[in-house]
Amino acid sequence: MTQHLQSVTTLANGVSMPWFGLGVFQVEEGEELVNAIRSAVAFGYRSIDTAAIYGNESSVGEGIRQAMAENGLKREDLFVTSKVWNADLGYESTLAAYETSLSKLGLDYLDLYLIHWPVAGKYKDAWRALEKLYKDGRIKAIGVSNFQIHHLKDVMEGAEIKPMVNQVEFHPRLTQKELLAYTSEQGIQLEAWSPLMQGQLLNDPALTEIAGQYGKSVAQVILRWDLQHGVVTIPKSTKEQRIIENASIFDFELSQADMDRIDGLNQNLRVGPDPDNFDF
Known about the structure:
Helix content: 40-55%
Strand content: 15-25%
Strand order of the largest sheet: 3-4-5-6-7-8-9-10
CATH topology: TIM Barrel
Shape: globular
Number of domains: 1
Oligomer: single chain
CATH class: Alpha Beta
Number of helices: 10
Structural class: alpha/beta
Radius of gyration: 18 Å
Order of helices and strands: EEEHEHEHEHEHEHEHHEHH
CATH superfamily: NADP-dependent oxidoreductase domain
Largest sheet: 8 strands, parallel
CATH architecture: Alpha-Beta Barrel
């Protein structure tokens, strides 16, 4: 079981990926974001997740540079993820989007690059581009985001390389049981976005009661539940106190009864778009 903040899972290709990281969705470019990354890395986070569409890759890159300098870290000590946006899905356009992301981040390579959404008729060409970047040694690992089982089967049908990661909405109201079982069986690491359901679960009575038994916050209980399900998780925060609280989940373990009870909160409820029905 995950023992500390720098514990890693090994992806199908042997690359190590931290179980826990910082997400920066809906955080604008600027000092607040730079400082959030500095706080996270100083506390021990080693994984940062962004995306082209977040419009904040420049500040993420700046935060990474400052954090590395302040903590005496090398580039290979950090795990950096970004994602190609829907408008750029296509073979040549995905290759170009990768260069744009790298240049905004000011990095020579990414640890993980994901197709952000499964846009019908487009993601297979994008996947070929990711395979090329990967084979050329430009990315350590490649994957997808918001892919359902049928999308995964479809992309793998003509692929030379299987996606190594699938990053999806995952929380106690959307437990994704079938998807988790399928990815696990295929050797694809599942990763959670919006693990706290954008804050909507923080006052849930059942979770509040469980948290009280462990002397932990509801957020800590949910994030621990993710890890015990073998799901990589990247909660978003810009506040130093919350960044530290979110990562203070390695000193307790949820019982099987409590894991089951949390699983029982599932309602197949999404806060984000439905991967089978989105129009952007």
